[in-house]
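#lab-general

N.A. 3:47 PM
ok so I finally got the sequence cleaned up, no stray characters, all 197 residues accounted for. can someone with queue access submit it? mine expired

B.Y. 3:52 PM
send it over

N.A. 3:53 PM
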Amino acid sequence: MNKPETVRPPVACIFFIGGNPKFKESFPVSESPLGSDNHLPAGGSCHGCLVECDCKKESAYLKTQGEGPIKVSYIFPNGDRYEGECSRSASGVLMRSGTGKHTSAGGIIYTGEWHEDKMHGRGTMQHPSGALYEGEFKDNMYQGTGTYTFPDGSSYKGPFHKNRLEGDGAFTDTQGLVWIGEFHGKAALGLKMQHNI
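B.Y. 4:20 PM
back already:
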């Protein structure tokens, strides 16, 4: 049985909000818990501006803007792109929050819910290999109920825990046969074939 592809969070740095650039400003980028700069720039919302976040000072203009979800289009230094909602944390850092689409430079596409700059809630992740995960995420990992379709067309439907198949689920092989039972990571001893009568 194939192993699901690991979820890797993106890293951060050019920020577009709205239409044409009206000014250019600089912002510090906060450190993520994963050790990479993957937060949006500090501050609030602005309309029609380009912000480079690899810089040293904050804009008073952005600090004074309104609260609540902000729709953004953000390009990271590695070529990744995020389009969707973000909000300000208690420390003033803009983070992906709400719904959005993240496309990595390598072709991985996540569309779904975000919380505190992490994939969290319902979503879909498409891999360039053809693998597809549809289901629940928590802290940038497959977590909860979901369906993982492998590049060869086989699939697993059931619970996930920290990116691993975990619990009672169903594996459908490439010939359409459904195998049900208990999965623990790569192990699935005692699976039973489901018969349709």
